[in-house]
Amino acid sequence: MNLNDMTSKTKLRIVLLFLLSIPVISFLLNVIWMLFAGIWIALMELVFGVLLCITVIGIPFGLQHFKLMRLAIYPFGYDLR
After folding, report:
1. Longest Cα pair distance anywhere in the chain, in angstroms?
2. How many angstroms separate the CA atoms of 73 and 6, rounded?
3. Predicted confidence pLDDT, tens digits, the chain (81 residues)
4. What is the 3-state secondary structure (H, E, C) of the chain?
5. How is residue 34 annotated by DSSP?
6. Contact 42, 73 (CB under 8 A)
């Protein structure tokens, strides 16, 4: 299929399909989330993680809070492991 043979409407559909792919949508949602809520939740996770790492028993829980910081900032397109 030659690009010259396509109509402008078909070209627009292809461009929109490319722009609205999952990674692009995830990025846009992550930016919106980070601006409105992600920063505050991540700071809370940081504080809780540091407080829990003070004691020996709390270190594993503190490390999990540090992992949750990443999820709090960029929740879309991230898998917990």
Report:
1. 69
2. 41
3. 555 566 777 777 777 676 666 677 778 888 888 888 888 999 999 999 999 999 999 999 999 999 888 888 878 776 656
4. CCHHHCCHHHHHHHHHHHHCCHHHHHHHHHHHHHHHHHHHHHHHHHHHHHHHCCCCCCHHHHHHHHHHHHHHHCCCCCCCC
5. I
6. yes
Dist. CA 51–CA 81, nearest whole Å: 23
* Contact between 73 and 29 (Cβ < 8 Å): no
Provide the residue type at 18 as one letter.
F
Domain chopping of the chain, boundaries = 25-81
Residues with Cβ within 8 Å of 73's Cβ and at least 6 positions away in sequence, in order, are 30, 34, 38, 39, 42
Q: Which residue has the tokens 């559909």?
A: 13
Distance of CA 50 to the CA centre of its chain: 23
